[in-house]
Design brief:
about 50% helix; elongated; two-stranded antiparallel sheet
């Protein structure tokens, strides 16, 4: 499985937003772009998608920018990646199709392996919040099992 720059940059930018403003203070995208070394125009595209998904809210005018729509401990990495239309899956198969990865009928011989790996990655990312990223705490699986 490969996570593209779209998903990586979205998570980096949201973690920066959580660190420097959270849901209390609006942070200009120019500041996030500078700190994270990401193109401002690329960030604007990502934040438009995240705003549409309800992850951030925009503030206009002087002192404007973006802030988290929810607390950092309520925003998961999976939600961020999903908001920017980054699929979290390890198979090449189209789940809605009966064709295999190679275009034949049925699934490829390793489909179950890749599907399970993708499900575990999804489960892990759904258990990790922005607060966890800031605290470098990635034992989210244990937290989900305890709930």
């Amino acid at each position: 499985m490969r996570l593209t720059s779209k998903g990586r940059y979205a998570v980096m930018a949201m973690a920066d937003l959580a660190l420097h403003g959270g849901s209390d203070r609006a942070v200009p995208l120019q500041e996030v772009a500078r700190r994270q070394e990401i193109s401002l125009s690329y960030l604007e595209q990502l934040f438009a998608r995240m705003r549409k998904a309800g992850l951030v809210s925009g503030v206009r005018g002087p002192g404007g920018g973006y802030r988290l729509a929810k607390a950092a401990n309520e925003t998961t990495v999976a939600a961020i990646i999903e908001a920017v239309n980054e699929p979290i899956k390890a198979t090449r198969c189209d789940e809605a199709s009966t064709k295999s990865c190679l275009g034949r009928q049925g699934r490829c011989i390793a489909h179950g392996l890749w599907a399970e790996m993708g499900a575990r990655i999804q489960h892990f990312l759904a258990a990790v919040t922005l607060a966890d990223v800031l605290e470098q705490r990635f034992d989210g699986d244990a937290r989900v099992a305890a709930e």
